[in-house]
Amino acid sequence: MDKVQFSVGHITFFYQLTPEQQKLASLTETTTLDLSEWPQFSEQFTSAIQSAIPDELKLPTEKQLNYARRIATDLKVELPEGYQDSALICLAFFAEHKPAHDRMLAIYKGIKGNLLG
After folding, report:
1. Region class of 9: left (phi > 0), else alpha (psi between -120 and 50), else beta
2. CA distance 75 to 94
3. What is the pTM of this model?
4. What is the residue-wise DSSP string for 70-114?
5. How much is the pLDDT for 24?
6. Mind listing the pLDDT tens digit for each residue in 23-77?
7. DSSP conformational letter for 36
8. Are 90 and 65 within 8 A, CB to CB?
9. What's the mean pLDDT in 83-95?
10. CA separation (Å) from 83 to 62, 63, 105?
11. Phi/psi zone of residue 38: left (φ > 0), alpha (ψ -120 to 50 degrees), beta?
């Protein structure tokens, strides 16, 4: 055994074992390891899958969804249709409304500073 290969969806992952890993693997007994117990694996695995998704199909992150909702609430504007299913729709929403939201926040912080100061 000199490589590890597995597929998820349309993605095939491949890893070439180092000579040391090959030697160690030849000494092992049959066992099962739960990769979900390795947080670093889960994070990197998710990142690898996300990088294989074309931009037009990417889902928004929770952070993007929360930011879009915050902007909509603060500016009293409607969220765009499909924002929950498209990172591109969220990014377009940010491009359109972030400048006004930033100005509103700056004014709010100025008023809050004057009231407390």
Report:
1. left
2. 12
3. 0.59
4. HHHHHHT-PPPTTGGG-HHHHHHHHHHHHHHHHHHHHHHHHHHHH
5. 93
6. 999 999 999 989 989 989 989 998 999 899 998 899 999 999 999 999 999 999 9
7. G
8. yes
9. 96
10. 12, 13, 23
11. beta
